[in-house]
Amino acid sequence: MSKTTITAELPIDQILAGECIKKMRELPSESIDLIFADPPYNLQLKGSLLRPDNSKVDACDDDWDQFDTFKVYDDFTRDWLKEAKRLLKPNGAIWVIGSYHNVFRLGASLQDLGFWILNDVIWRKSNPMPNFRGMRLTNAHETLIWAAKSDSGKYTFNYEAMKQANDGIQMRSDWLIPICNGGERLKDEHGDKAHPTQKPEALLHRVILATTKPNDVILDPFFGTGTTGAVAKSLGRHFIGIEREAAYRKVAQKRIDNVRRYERDALEVSQSKRAEPRVAFGQIIETGMLRPGEMLTSLNGRHRAKIRADGTLIAHDVKGSIHQVGAQLENAPSCNGWTYWGFKKEGSIVPIDLLRQQYRISMSEGLRSN
């Protein structure tokens, strides 16, 4: 079955009403690029939680978060994770988020089912709810687990985009992000919180930007008030939400209807050099950007080599590719010829990598014009 056929069968950009496992079973296998799951925490709350002024904390005590035993919760977890694995494409991945009440059980189930854990991420809340009783540490974080469908999957990770988003430093696995509050916190018709565990859009923005591509399909089987759908739409991705509670679906649909997708050029993200189209040095010669007989000079100034018609170089008795000749002249095990060799331009020696970048730009412009 082709990718186009599978996508046509999917309820793209829709919120499905019903129990997550039942609705997941109705979707075609290997049709989803990414799953973001915020399952019930199974908080096991005992009694009301009060502030020092005796006002009641609006905690998560809804029926959907109640499970009779750990076994019942574990069975539920394995059932929906089995469906998640079936639905993911071979190179798909999943994110699950939880608190200390459930995340360790989620992690065990993921590994038992053959998912390949890539990272656990600590979402450190810059403004957590204080511990009112003073009997424990303030619970200031939640844990996300990022896992590939299998250890052989070629999952998406936009490394360079995450590095640039972090001021040019590798993105770490501890994320300092405020909890959802203020104008972002959705309210119902009575002015109360529409959902007790609404996640901040900043968290989903980072997850989706890091691990998907434009037009990818993201499934959220515990859709709630639709944070995943709202962020997916704005970032040019597709979503499928599953939610059993009518009140949440109503709020989520209204929210998503008001979201505008960013312009196409704004959705492009920084790519690593490995992700860029491969260019052979021979293509530079074929297009006349450099010509046979021209001389290249090593940027350290120690060596020169002549370009041959087939894109190889010759320097004295050394012949081969730009990489091979550079390595032999330097008596090194390897050499990146693109950054080793330069050509003369306006009186200066410029890396030939500049020509490779110009060639890639011309390729992308040609594809867009077609």
Largest sheet at a glance?
A: 8 strands, mixed
- Mean of residue pLDDT? 88
Helix-strand pattern? HEHEHEHEEHEHEHEHHEEEEHHEEH
- Contiguous low-pLDDT stretches (5 residues minimum) are 47-52, 54-60
**How much strand content do the residues show?**
15-25%
- Helical element count? 12
Class of secondary structure makeup: alpha/beta
Question: Rg from C-alpha positions?
Answer: 27 Å
- Overall, the morphology is elongated
Distance between the termini: 27 Å
Number of strands: 14
The portion of residues assigned to helices is 25-40%
Strand order of the largest sheet: 1-8-7-2-3-5-4-6
Please give a structural write-up.
This protein has twelve helices and 14 strands. The chain is α/β, with parallel strands linked by helices and 370 residues long. α3 crosses α4 (103-112) and α6 (201-211) packs across α7.
Please summarize what this structure is.
By secondary structure, the protein is of the alpha/beta class.
Entry keywords:
alpha/beta, eight-stranded mixed β-sheet, 370 residues, elongated
Write the layout of secondary structure elements.
Layout: H1 3-9, E1 14-17, H2 20-24, E2 32-37, H3 70-87, E3 88-98, H4 103-112, E4 116-125, E5 141-148, H5 159-165, E6 174-177, H6 201-211, E7 217-220, H7 227-234, E8 238-243, H8 246-257, H9 281-286, E9 295-298, E10 304-307, E11 313-315, E12 318-320, H10 322-329, H11 337-340, E13 341-345, E14 348-351, H12 353-369
Parallel strand pairs: 1-8, 2-3, 2-7, 4-6, 7-8
Antiparallel strand pairs: 3-5, 4-5, 9-10, 9-13, 10-11, 11-12, 13-14
